[in-house]
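Anyone? Bumping this.
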Amino acid sequence: MIKASHTITRRSLLKTSAAGAAFGAVGLPLTYRPARAAATTVGFIYVGPKDDYGYNQAHAEGAAAVKGLSGLTVVEEENVPETVDVQKTMESMINLDGASLVFPTSFGYFDPHMLAMAKKFPNVQFRHCGGLWDKSKHPANTGSYFGYIGMGQYLNGIVAGHASKSKKIGFVAAKPIPQVLMNINSFLLGARAVDPTIVCQVIFTGEWSLAVKEAEATNALVDGGVDVVTCHVDGPKVVVQTAAGRGAYVCGYHANQSPLAPDKYLTGAEWNWATVYTGFAKKMLAGEPLDNFVRGGIAEGFVKMSPLGPAVGEAARKQFDAALAEMKTGGFAAIKGPLKSNKGDQVVAAGQALPETAIELESMNYLVEGVQG
Amino acid sequence: MTMSDIGLWSVPLAMLGGAIRVSTPFIFVSLGEAITERSGRINLGLEGTLVFGAMAAYAVAVETGSAWTGVVAAMLAGAGFGLLHAWICSFPKVNDIAVGIALMLFGIGLAFFFGKPYIQPAAPRLPAIPFGAWSDLPQIQAALSINVLFLAGIALAVALWWCFKNTRAGLIVRVVGDSAEAARAMGLNPTTVRLIATAVGGAFAAVGGAYLSLYYPGSWNERLSSGQGLMAVALVIFARWNPLGCLAAALLFGAAGALGPALQSAGVTQGYYLFYAAPYVLTLAIMIATSSPGRALAGAPGELSITR
């Protein structure tokens, strides 16, 4: 076992060097696969199906953009649980496919799975989607990338604020992690930029993908008087269809869901991972070191908005466009003091503004005043 | 605040709605399992049949544009899975539980394989009957918008209960399930009876799947079932192999499942993970409360591999 992993380590080292291919064929009789030409292989791992109208589809669209680059092979695996399974997937991508850069795209892949693999394969680069990477704690061959999609939810909120008649908007959330809390808070703050009396009801389903519970949560929100719904779950299809079926407006998330509810779909916050993945891949091909900490928002092209739906009125469109234009200059601050949490604590002091780039937003642990849940 | 704001009343209403919306797959799968087990076989593969039925129904509905054709296709596929299970189990010394688990994984895998191209397209939905039209409250209208399959499930439970009690066919299934020797002495062929019972059970379970993909939540994806098929098998034991009991258990399970989201929506936000476990806690509690060392597993068919 030790010998095998040693062999592979040496091999992947050789692979990245210019003369790697020739040596690989001659010097390593133990390999069970003919050595390839010095092509770079990139692995993508998804937690769900890659055409789920959501999180995984967004990543797969990014991966598809990378496939177009010459000298690069893309390997993908979908439906990989956030368990030791993902370690096996990473190991096989590295050992069998010769991947030198791996993107485990789901939040729960990071600790302990990706970290364990990063230790085992110090010459392979790992980049995780999310905000968990910490320079002082984690190995140098790992890193994270993420987008300020909260700003997209802020824009969703503006449109939702105009569309809501009951002044109550709803959010179906998976788990109370910082990125989700940031989205919920941004959604409400966007709506409150329209009308400060608006409240947001949130329901946590407890899992990233749980179709029946998501449908129940959406129904419960509409039963509770909510008339605009958005979500942060892996596949928003069920939420979008259920909410529209109940006559509520919907704001999308992760990808464009407007084909599912053309009349009720207002807009949506979408990922544009193609920017991130082609950026990494080009650096890899050029032999440059990869960044460990990659962030960007609407300004950098990491996040985009779905086209506004037919139900969006003129006033909403104007405010949306204005906020979008401001975000395109970068550093937009949705979280501005004085701001209280929904438990009544002061979370941001008066006069303080946290721009989208502020690192403390990645450890958000509160819901702002006006969020119920 | 508008007229439609009904505060805490939304909780019992949501539970009623949840019982109607969520329970249908449980009803069909548990009725299917009840028939199978009454004939003396355990088919643990119904989770796989449910998932495959969901996929088959969705795929056929997308292709033909008719939700009902999808349901029929699911029934045929489910019957096929049932026949396969019964056929394998008809050989001597085959363990039906092991075969069931194998078929569960097979059904799920096959559904994922064939279902890939159908994750994106939207299929026509099964119709619902608006029993709540008398009310002005949208919540009541929504809760009482009842799918035809739910009503069919209730009718089926009553019919099965009556058949088991009063008809010759019901008696045959029961005899085969209680004592294969007695059945043979009567001139019945237990293998044939079990073949039919398992096939019918599979067809019912697949209808449960069709409900999931064609009505609620109403889309096909690989995470559609969250163990409904397995839970329904447990519900049969909980219901003591009585079709009416299956219906009651399924309704209870659906209502308890709606508790978590409804309470959060009404503003009870502490410990929602605990509320989400309510259906399972409830099952456990009732199982413990109704069990007794004196009359263990009352109503269990004598030929089941767990009681034999």
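Late reply, but here is one note on the structure posted above: The interface with chain A takes residues 1-2, 4-6, 10, 13-14, 17-18, 21-22, 112, 116, 119-120, 122, 138-139, 142-143, 212, 216-219, 221-224, 226, 228, 257-258, 260-262, 264-267, 269, 272-273, 276 of chain B (CB under 8 Å).
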